[in-house]
Amino acid sequence: xxxxxxxxxxxxxxxxxxxxxxxxxxxxxxxxxxxxxxxxxxxxxxxxxxxxxxxxxxxxxxxxxxxxxxxxxxxxxxxxxxxxxxxxxxxxxxxxxxxxxxxxxxxxxxxxxxxxxxxxxxxxxxxxxxxxxxxxxxxxxxxxxxxxxxxxxxxxxxxxxxxxxxxxxxxxxxxxxxxxxxxxxxxxxxxxxxxxxxxxxxxxxxxxxxxxxxxxxxxxxxxxxxxxxxxxxxxxxxxxxxxxxxxxxxxxxxxxxxxxxxxxxxxxxxxxxxxxxxxxxxxxxxxxxxxxxxxxxxxxxxxxxxxxxxxxxxxxxxxxxxxxxxxxxxxxxxxxxxxxxxxxxxxxxxxxxxxxxxxxxxxxxx
Length: 366
What we know:
Distance between the termini: 26 Å
Order of helices and strands: HEHEEHEHEHEHHHEEEEEEHHEEEEEEE
Strand order of the largest sheet: 4-3-2-1-5-6
CATH superfamily of the largest domain: Creatinase/methionine aminopeptidase superfamily
Structural class: alpha+beta
Helix content: 25-40%
Largest sheet: 6 strands, mixed
CATH class of the largest domain: Alpha Beta
Shape: elongated
Oligomer: single chain
Strand content: 15-25%
CATH topology of the largest domain: Creatine Amidinohydrolase
């Protein structure tokens, strides 16, 4: 499947994004975006190493000479080529009369913040790290389409690799093959480092692929995702390399049922913690809750982990057009791990599945 990697956004889409970004001003004169994802989302510039500053009626992107041409081709904002970034941003802010500015305080490092405080003596700095995490939480039709394509690319890659066999192969080699297949099928990158964890290592929720040889009669947890036109997919399957035992089968059925219970709870207006609690209570009632330590899921889009967060401590409320993962798991130390993860689009009264791989029955792979 050959897919163009050129990433375009409609003018209407970019206009709505800057309007959404401006809604965070709330009395501030300006906001400075420094995370790559947010700069790209609002400005259209897809390269690295940039800061975007916007006010109610201006928008500017600051880059160095390596990125000037690309920024001017991609962004409708005014592009400034700078040699001393924060000094020149400060001068720009003074020129346009900015007295207060919000920053991505969760992104800017301490050294940069100290430098800003020294430079911005007449400009009040307000941290907006938590608030701006929600800037990209709602997805438009184009973003959703890109994530659907990313999911299809990653799924075909996994199926191709599983069809070739994984027994007697190193975990790292299986992970490498999945990543190569995703690239071959149109992905621009992997959403994250592919996880392949077999046997007792499958009880490590984020066990990086290792030199371990995948043996016969072992469970294998595979967590994988592709990036297509800047948007991520994320999915986890658990397969076996021979018919599993009764304990594993029972645990798999419980994880599968916990996921189904959580999916039924997904809808606009539902607290994210409620979906988590539904799955967690079911696993607790069946003696497996102590083996489920992480949150139920997370939002995703341009980054593989975005808002909302679906966990016991989450204050988030699900909204129409959010895309989230639902990924309950059971991890029994020194025995096995099981995780089933799918992506869902939240709608006004339910949800739509984005990922397609069938997890109803345990797949036995040679």
